[in-house]
């Protein structure tokens, strides 16, 4: 037994079985040294296997932890934290590949204290990390700043120096030939990395790469699913609006609620017909009106969704086949993903459908109004039936109606003039077409004022001329008033007064020609009223003097002779006439009106004396 106890080989075996450390094995006396050497080799193999088992266990735990993470930012932080713990380094960090920029950028760190280092970017081939990124192979250095195997740059070396790093190991993150980024472990002292450490970092990098790609895929699936859900919700919302009879206002509000920001519908004429949210004025952005904004101009030309990043505006054309209807403009919503863009495109389609529905309904209503107007001004139909039809359109058949006939230049479509006239006519009126003209019947007793007002309201369409006549009650001589209004319109055009409105009574002597029942006394009173009233009050002879003045060819001296008064008397009377009629009465056109009124007055008085 003593022999066995003293045998070095048996002593070494016993110590190995008890798990003694290498230092205790090395203290055993062995003359040949062969048994001690074998025991130490066995001990080293045991230690390596135990360390490998611990590393594998740690990798399995890491894989389980990474698989449970769904937040991309949290995943990257967990990777660098586990890398630093497994390798026992001072710092660990991870860069991701930016395919658009063609470089890698710092994404996560653990143990880092330098802001400069945490924001560094590495071009492919630059530095240790750039070399790993370009070759997809691991590299390590015990003293990076003095290692000339790598292409040093001032930016990278400055960041590494600011962090105080000396030894660095980097390994690529690759999944099925897809380069993801680089995982690093580093120390602030010259400490070489063993092959086992490099292999361990590589294994962790492989797990990390798979986890990153899976998380990205899951995030893309989540975003896609979310987008599909949002698109479905938008589809349902728009469908509900259409089924409920909603209009463009409802669509703009729904689009604003779904995507955020403000929404405006601009029609094909550039008018903002509907809006939702705090729409900024054009001057707020220093740019043009929405109808002239770059996004609206682009979508009007292409028909596709357009984006103006400078003004944070999106625009999509609203159109029917071959017919532009306008555009939807979204602002203040930032970047739109694919689902949001499809929502805008769907809103444009629904908006076009709603506008077409409204246009079809409006055209059907307009046909009813046109039939009524045409029957009224042509005298067709039973008066009681016409009165009932007028009442159904909101017209009081007991109130006298003024007939207005509107005409625009050739650049304005008649349908546009018709719709604009309907909008401008006001309550209690009806607008239609008859014999190729737009006709409005208004409940007013002032035809001239109504014509002037309608012409002004339609001025945005161009030069719209309006002739007026009446008022006449339903069942009265509306056809005669219609004919007079047409003649007045023709007279305005012939006199070069396009863009104006008037009744025959306000056309001067031309009104006597176009009027259906010329009001001679009214015309005389319009022209000579102030003089007639003055003569009646004062017993003067201003009208007689004016007649003599015109008969004398505008000569006060000859007029004085005809009147048997002094020329100064005529001059004083002419000054009084100027004070009463205004300084323009001697202009050719005004003088013609006065002479015609004087002549008609004499004819009327002669006719009355004859009877």
- CATH architecture type of the largest domain: 2-Layer Sandwich
Tally of individual helices: 22
Briefly note the structural class of the backbone.
Answer: alpha+beta
Which residues form runs of ≥5 with pLDDT under 50?
Answer: 283-287, 512-516
Predict the CATH topology of the largest domain. Answer: Beta-Lactamase
Radius of gyration: 49 Å
Q: What can be said about the biggest beta sheet? A: 6 strands, antiparallel
Beta-strand content estimate: 15-25%
Distance between the termini: 175 Å
Q: Based on DSSP secondary structure assignment, what is the total number of beta strands?
A: 16
Q: What does the overall shape look like?
A: elongated
What is the highest CATH level, the class of the largest domain? Alpha Beta
How many domains make up the coordinates?
Answer: 5
Helix content: 40-55%
Major beta sheet, strand line-up:
3-2-1-6-5-4
Could you tell me the mean pLDDT?
77
């Amino acid at each position: 037994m003593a022999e066995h106890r003293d045998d070095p080989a048996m002593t070494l075996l016993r110590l190995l079985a008890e798990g003694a450390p290498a230092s205790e094995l090395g203290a055993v006396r062995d003359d040949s040294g062969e048994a001690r050497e074998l025991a130490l080799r066995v001990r080293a193999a045991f230690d390596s296997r135990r360390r490998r088992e611990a590393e594998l266990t740690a990798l399995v735990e890491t894989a389980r932890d990474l698989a449970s993470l769904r937040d991309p930012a949290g995943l990257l932080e967990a990777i660098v934290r586990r890398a630093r713990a497994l390798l026992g380094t001072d710092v660990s960090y991870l860069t991701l590949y930016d395919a658009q920029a063609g470089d890698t950028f710092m994404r996560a760190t653990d143990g880092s204290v330098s802001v400069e280092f945490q924001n560094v970017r590495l071009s492919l081939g630059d530095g240790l990390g750039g070399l790993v990124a370009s070759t997809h192979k691991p590299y390590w250095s015990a003293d990076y700043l003095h290692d000339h195997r790598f292409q040093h740059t001032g930016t990278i070396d400055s960041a590494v120096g600011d962090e105080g790093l000396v030894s660095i190991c980097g390994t690529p993150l690759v999944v099925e030939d897809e380069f993801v980024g680089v995982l690093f472990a580093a120390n602030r002292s010259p400490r070489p990395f063993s092959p086992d450490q490099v292999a361990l970092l590589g294994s962790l990098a492989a797990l990390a790469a798979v986890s990153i790609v899976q998380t990205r895929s899951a995030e893309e699936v989540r975003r896609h699913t979310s987008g599909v859900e949002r698109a479905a919700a938008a589809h349902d919302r728009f469908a509900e609006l259409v089924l409920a009879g909603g209009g463009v206002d409802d669509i703009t509000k729904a689009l604003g609620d779904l995507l955020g920001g403000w929404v405006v519908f601009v029609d094909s004429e550039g008018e903002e017909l509907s809006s939702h949210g705090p729409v900024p004025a054009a001057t707020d952005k220093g740019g043009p009106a929405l109808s002239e904004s770059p996004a609206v101009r682009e979508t009007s030309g292409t028909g596709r969704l357009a984006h103006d990043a400078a003004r944070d505006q999106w625009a999509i054309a609203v159109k029917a086949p071959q017919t532009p209807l306008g555009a939807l403009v979204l602002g203040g919503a930032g970047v739109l993903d694919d689902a949001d863009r499809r929502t805008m495109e769907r809103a444009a389609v629904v908006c076009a459908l709603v506008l077409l529905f409204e246009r079809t309904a409006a055209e059907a209503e307009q046909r009813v109004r046109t039939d009524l107007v045409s029957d009224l001004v042509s005298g067709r139909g039973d008066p009681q039936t016409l009165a009932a039809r007028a009442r159904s359109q909101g017209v009081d058949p007991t109130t006298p109606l003024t007939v207005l006939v509107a005409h625009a230049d050739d650049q304005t479509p008649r349908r546009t003039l018709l719709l604009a006239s309907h909008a401008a006519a006001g309550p209690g009126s009806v607008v239609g077409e008859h014999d190729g003209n737009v006709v409005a019947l208004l409940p007013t007793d002032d035809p001239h004022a109504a014509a002037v007002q309608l012409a002004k309201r339609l001025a945005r369409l161009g030069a719209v001329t309006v002739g007026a006549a009446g008022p006449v009650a339903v069942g009265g001589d509306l056809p005669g008033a219609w004919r007079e209004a047409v003649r007045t319109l023709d007279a305005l055009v012939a006199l070069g007064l396009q863009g104006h409105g008037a009744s025959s009574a306000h056309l001067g002597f031309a009104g006597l020609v176009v009027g259906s029942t010329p009001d001679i006394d009214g015309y005389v009173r319009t022209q000579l009223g102030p003089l007639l009233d003055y003569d009646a009050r004062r017993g003067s002879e201003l009208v007689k003097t004016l007649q003599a003045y015109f008969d004398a060819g505008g000569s006060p001296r000859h007029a004085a002779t005809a009147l048997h008064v002094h020329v100064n008397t005529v001059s004083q009377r002419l000054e009084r006439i100027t004070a009463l009629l205004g300084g323009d009465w001697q202009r050719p056109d005004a003088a013609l009106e006065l002479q015609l009124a004087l002549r008609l007055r004499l004819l009327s008085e002669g006719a009355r004396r004859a009877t």
